[in-house]
Amino acid sequence: ELKVEQNPLFLSMQEGKNYTIYCNYSTTSDRLYWYRQDPGKSLESLFVLLSNGAVKQEGRLMASLDTKARLSTLHITAAVHDLSATYFCAVDKGGVDSNYQLIWGAGTKLIIKP
Amino acid sequence: NAGVTQTPKFRVLKTGQSMTLLCAQDMNHEYMYWYRQDPGMGLRLIHYSVGEGTTAKGEVPDGYNVSRLKKQNFLLGLESAAPSQTSVYFCASSYERGGFSYNEQFFGPGTRLTVL
User: Fold this and answer.
1) What is the pLDDT of residues B104-116, one digit of tens each?
2) Domain A4-113 CATH (choose: 2.60.40.10, 2.60.40.200, 3.90.105.10, 2.60.320.10)
3) SS3 for B85?
4) Distance from CA of A15 to the nearest CA of B (A)
5) Cα–Cα dist A16/B92, whole Å
6) Is the pLDDT of residue A98 over 70?
7) What pLDDT sits at residue B99?
């Protein structure tokens, strides 16, 4: 059974600092997704990672995927308050019968203080 | 292009009452999903559909039913609501991509349901 674990689950940091959120998953998959959710809002797609070594960057956020280690990272550079949100990773369940089901991590609540 | 919409946005039910949540998408997507989101538990898949007239169970289907009579609509029903069904419900959709396919899902705004 595919399990997805994120850590940390909660992160409070100062503006200007760098930090990394980790997403580990338990079985083979080469499709991983990062989403952002603002409080009381819906989920917004940030990154789609589709192969080993994939790296995507958008502004101060950079995501990478290591399928051999079953690990994805979301790195925040020089954090700003606007990046405060909950970040989720999700992994394709895979397999013939999966019908593109995603298995979700519990989310990392990120608070960035001025 | 409205994307994925959900109706209603908020609802309060008493135990034992029934209701239907409506999800609509105007992107001509084949796949549609219903999730529930509870604090600290991420998203859990309730039911999903891979096309008009088809539905399948997800991770937590008990107490829910779904229908997809039209490609653009996916309905989630609670026949006899229970307090354990208090949650935020999200609908999502995605489309079949040719070749090396993947499943980036697009989400609706959510429905906040409270069962007393």
Assistant:
1) 899 999 999 999 9
2) 2.60.40.10
3) helix
4) 25
5) 34
6) no
7) 60
